[in-house]
Design brief:
By secondary structure, this protein is an alpha/beta fold. The protein is 23% helix and 27% strand. It is globular. This is Putative zinc-type alcohol dehydrogenase-like protein.
Length: 349
């Protein structure tokens, strides 16, 4: 065991505070990593505040981790001391089911092991995340950060990036397709960048007229203010794909009507029941598909980092001193960040 430092929440209303804990001893296939940067995801807030009723306290969030390798186990083949590497939303899986064998560990039939608030498959200890100074992770769940990428802006690619990249690739988005991106936060702005790089014509749906200029600045070809009935009416049956990044309940029905026949509406942000009720006729009458997608497997997570390096894509971030993490959470709840907070771990003292 090694003593580590981090920030943890010890109850649903405690906020985050400095916390010392023990990291497990490295196993033969493990990579030990000193953490340089960790992105802040809205999921972190849900776990800190126990919004989903599944938090095990104390909880140390963080699953957008970039750092440098400090040691490798004797069975490690792909990494060496000094490598810049990343760790995303999972640190293990059964490794033998059909999903894992297909490189889709996020859909492991036995359930993936989350980077934090998960249960270690070997010793049943609770996993602790990247709001800390170092981490120990199996080689299979570590990815290389290309030299061309800035380490800080690369961190959110490990969640916000792969979450939006994976469904666009899975459903075959390419030149000639019309893609609508619903929501313009950490996920949404990455979805725009990926869809554009894949050659699609991209439209952002936003609820606010005040965000139109910013949406175009992000690279959108068009902007639709979804609260404007005339604009939504004009958009009817015009999109091949909708990438829905909104993390709270919202009415899907007006958006479904914007799809062509055989169009696909992909949920990547909503984990709650659909409310209000879905009008199934909008699906049946046009053979439309309502789909969901969860992060990406390890091969695809490496792929998205390489894709970002090739296409000069990075996440727009605001650097954060970890001592201000509780204030940052409040700002995130208000949508007051463009577009992802990243913690500079040098501030962890």
């Amino acid at each position: 065991m090694t003593v580590a430092k981090g920030y943890a929440a010890e109850s649903s209303d405690s906020g985050l505070a400095p916390f010392e804990f023990e990291r497990r001893e490295p196993r033969p296939d493990d990579v030990s990593i000193d953490i340089d940067y960790c992105g802040v995801c809205h999921t972190d807030i849900h776990f800190v505040e126990n919004d989903w009723g599944a938090t095990v306290y104390p909880v140390i969030p963080g699953h957008e981790i970039v750092g440098r390798v400090t040691a490798v186990g004797p069975e490690v083949r792909n990494y060496q001391v000094g490598d810049v590497v990343g760790v995303g939303c999972m640190v293990d899986s059964c490794r033998s089911c059909s999903a894992c064998e297909a490189g889709l560990e996020q859909y492991c039939l036995e359930g993936m092991t989350a980077t934090y608030n998960g249960k270690d498959r070997h010793d049943e200890s609770v996993t602790y995340g990247g709001y800390s100074n170092h981490v120990v992770v199996s080689e299979r769940f570590v990815v290389k950060v290309p030299e061309k990428l800035d380490s800080a802006t690369a961190a959110p690619i490990l969640c916000a990036g792969i979450t939006t990249y994976s469904p666009l690739r899975h459903y075959g988005v390419r030149a000639g397709h019309k893609v609508g991106v619903i929501g313009m936060g950490g996920l949404g702005h990455m979805g725009v960048k990926f869809a554009k790089a894949l050659g699609a014509e991209v439209t952002i749906f936003t609820r606010s007229e005040s965000k139109v200029a910013e949406a175009k600045k992000q690279g959108a070809d068009h902007v639709i203010v979804s609260t404007d009935r005339e604009q939504m009416k004009a958009a009817a049956e015009s999109f091949d794909f909708l990438l829905d990044t909104v993390p709270v309940q919202h009415d899907l029905n007006p958006y479904l009507n914007c799809l062509t026949f055989d169009g696909t509406h992909i949920l990547v942000g909503l984990l709650e029941p659909v409310e209000p009720a879905l009008q199934a006729g909008a699906l049946v009458g046009k053979r439309r598909v309502l789909a969901g997608s969860l992060i990406g497997g390890m091969p695809e997570t490496q792929e998205v980092l390489d894709f970002c390096a090739e296409h000069d894509i990075e996440c727009d971030i605001e650097m954060l001193d970890i001592h201000n993490i509780n204030d940052a959470y409040q700002r995130m709840k208000k949508g007051d960040v463009k577009y992802r907070f990243v913690i500079d771990m040098k501030s962890l003292t």
